Amino acid sequence: MSELTGLTLKAALDGLADKRFSSEEITTAHLSAIEAASALNAFVVNTPDKAIEMAKASDARRAKGEAGPLDGAPLGIKDLFCTEGVESTAGSMILRGFKPAYESTVTSNLWRDGAVMLGKLNMDEFAMGSSNETSAWGPVVNPWRARGGNADLTPGGSSGGSAAAVAAELCLGATATDTGGSIRQPAAFTGTVGIKPTYGRCSRWGIVAFASSLDQAGPMARTVEDTAILLRSMSGHDPKDSTSINAEVPDFASFCGKSVKGLRVGIPKEYRVDGMPPEIDALWEQGIAWLKEAGCEIVEVSLPHTKYALPAYYIVAPAEASSNLARYDGMRYGLRVEGANLADTYEKTRAEGFGAEVKRRILIGTYVLSAGYYDAYYLKALKVRRRIADDFDQAWEKVDAQLTPTAPSAAFALGEKSDDPVAMYLNDIFTVTVNLAGLPGMSVPAGVDANGLPLGLQLIGRNLDEGTLFSLGSAIEKAADFRAKPQKWW
Amino acid sequence: MAIDAATVRKVAKLARIAEPEERLEPLARELNGIMTWIEQLSEVDTDGVEPMTTSVAMSLPMRDDVVTDGGDPARVLGNAPKAARDFFIVPKVVE
């Protein structure tokens, strides 16, 4: 059955359309693969009965000629998405046992188009982390290992479960979310493709909130075209999210393979940071060469406030998180630890329910919003955020897209950075600017390092111009011809 | 300005997170490390810059002020740690 799990989403949809196999068959193949891969800890909830039921319903629809664009395709869902009647914990102890009474808009859109849910994917607690180690359910293990090594590596975070499941062929594609790099960095660490679309493309309704002005959902899959197919279904205006953009959703897949001749691609000089491994620099140069060969014009651009993006993010995101996570008070859902009185119950519930990193960020957020510090920190960060967005606006006068590395290193070992918050935060140095500005960004696997571990390149686009990213992304994909796969050890 | 144990105690209280006394000093050190790194923002000239609160350049959409959902207490209470007769049960607030 492994031939069915090894298919791209596109090939699987073609096979289903040609009746070469049924949804029940391809779903069963994936369920077996998941069962055999518990060592990866990618799934936190398995829903095999629901999957088979959805697959049978899909086969029935197809028999009647009523198949939708994703009909019968088995997918994994990041546990940040609320799924009706299925435990949704956002990687947190405080939500253990929480079964939403509603379905998120993004997952509703996927089911509307016929997709099948395999289960819920592990993640950093409340999407706060870059290594999956903050999950209350233990870290996901990257299916990739260094050549000749057997150390457990991080799949990245926060969408580490999504990345690992896609890389290990446990699902055809997965939903993910990205607040500071949580789709793109795990994609780079696992040799998969991930796109964070323009802020507002995908509805946030029913996605557990972390930092609402930055959070955005997007897909992860094994090819650029597969992410394009998924993004089209996930996107769309939703009146239930006041920041949802009311814009037409293009057929993103039609941009894949399109000529990129004449496109002007910017290379931001501030991304050449000190201490960047030479391999990452070489990969970036290789990416530039590939795009030149494909007919792009390469232009050096300047984003002068790049180095301030992470510190600004670590004020804005914790501030919003401290407010968003105030809802976990043990009264209406989730964990409750009884105390001597109401305030004591709140304090004990939150002390026991939240992990160390989440508490750290709530404390920072509370601090920067507290009387006397609001102007010095929070307001200052919002002004720096504007300057970062202005940098991009100026660059867009000269270029159509930008090319950068996705992450400053390949996947590192679990435990390697967990004692140093700032070192961990630096993982998002190349991705976080995009969230602050609200722009679309994509990571495409482009090569491997000396240890055989995957490395990614990031493409950044104008607002609502994901199409250009799909064209450039597929040009890089074609040139890189990335075929490496993790050696199965699990 | 450095964050000391007293500041952590106060912020934890505001955030409604119980932090044991012995955690206050280590937390102060951790938070100081992060805030010192954040201090570099003061290098940026932001005079006359409008704060950016959202990346979506549009006004908030309005809708008619009517009830669109509800009337389903069983679903609302489905995850309640404690509930009785269509109410959440919470610790006593008023003496």
Q: Please, could you describe this protein's structure?
A:
The complex is a heterodimer of chains A (490) and B (95). Chain A has 490 residues and is an alpha/beta fold. Chain A is built from 16 helices and eleven strands. Chain A has helices at residues 2-5, 9-17, 23-35, 48-63, 105-112, 160-167, 184-190, 224-234, 278-293, 309-324, 342-353, 356-369, 374-395, 421-425, 432-437, 466-480; strands spanning 43-46, 74-78, 116-121, 173-178, 193-196, 216-221, 264-268, 297-301, 401-405, 441-448, 454-461. Chain A has an eight-stranded mixed β-sheet with strand order 4-6-5-10-11-9-7-8, sandwiched between helices. A three-stranded mixed β-sheet of chain A has the order 1-3-2. In chain A, helix 9 links the parallel strand 7 (264-268) and strand 8. Chain A is globular, with a radius of gyration of 21 Å. The mean pLDDT of chain A is 97. With 95 residues, chain B is mainly alpha-helical. Chain B is built from three helices and two strands; from the N terminus they run αααββ. The two termini of chain B are 40 Å apart. The model of chain B has no long low-confidence stretch (mean pLDDT 93). The interface between A and B is large, with 67 and 51 residues.
Strand order of the largest sheet of chain A: 4-6-5-10-11-9-7-8
The number of strands of chain B is 2
Q: What structural class is derived from the secondary structure elements of chain A? A: alpha/beta
Number of strands of chain A: 11
Poorly predicted tracts of residues of chain A: none
**H/I helix tally of chain B:** 3
The topology string of helices and strands of chain B comes to HHHEE
Oligomer: heterodimer
Strand sequence of the main sheet of chain B, in spatial order?
1-2
Beta-strand proportion of chain A: 5-15%
Q: What is the rounded Rg of chain B?
A: 23 Å
Mean pLDDT of chain B: 93
> What percentage of amino acids of chain B are in beta strands?
under 5%
